[in-house]
Amino acid sequence: MTATLGDFYTGRPTEDIARDLLGHELIYTTPAGTLSGWIVETEAYLGEKDTAAHAFNGRYTAANAALYDAPGTIYIYVLRGYYMLDVATQAAGTPQGILIRGLEPHQGINLMRQHRPKPDPDISNGPGKLTAALGLQSKALNRTMLGAQNLTITPTATRIPAAVNATARVGVSDGSWQNRPLRYVVAGNPYVSASRKRDWDRINHGWRV
């Protein structure tokens, strides 16, 4: 991982990093071509104290070990048969991370449609959908660093949200953290999961122009 990319994940609260990831480009390079998209939805998970986090109460297993690695480490896990993409955000031993939940396609859209033959925006408006669209369907990159192999996220935003909304996380239904506003979305973007059509910005998709 480059120093610039490493700096982005170092020395800041996970909530700030999750918000700031909106508009960065997720890029996956494959033998068939490069696929990418702008991040439009993230969720922050805050480690041992967070009742919804995989590391709640200091839980450490082979499955979630990536969260305890250096910031910028890729954490891939399977939930209900879908691959999920997370990034560790804090110093090694502090198991906090960010789930990438929504992606607006940019490069390789035809490949994405082959991988996941669904109409837009259903192709990548959810965490399991976006990994399917990218063809990221294994744990081969788990516990590797962003940029070390063929998966990276740009260190700076290549599009700027006109507005960002913070909401409760999706699917968190128990514990004292269920209503905390730790989900960040590009307001009006159609590729935000479970968004309402009437709220979509159909012209600019919520990006600043």
UniProtKB/TrEMBL annotation:
An annotated GO BP: base-excision repair
InterPro entries: Formyl_transferase-like_C_sf, MPG, MPG_sf
E.C. numbers: 3.2.2.-
UniProt keyword annotation of Cytoplasm present: no
Highest taxon listed in the record's lineage: Bacteria
Gene3D superfamilies: Methylpurine-DNA glycosylase (MPG) (3.10.300.10)
Enzyme class: hydrolase
Pfam families, A to Z: Pur_DNA_glyco (PF02245)
Keyword Cell division annotated: no
GO molecular-function terms, A-Z: alkylbase DNA N-glycosylase activity; DNA binding
Keyword list, A-Z: DNA damage, DNA repair, Hydrolase
Family: Belongs to the DNA glycosylase MPG family.
Protein name: Putative 3-methyladenine DNA glycosylase
Organism: Candidatus Levilactobacillus faecigallinarum
Native organism taxonomy: Bacteria, Bacillati, Bacillota, Bacilli, Lactobacillales
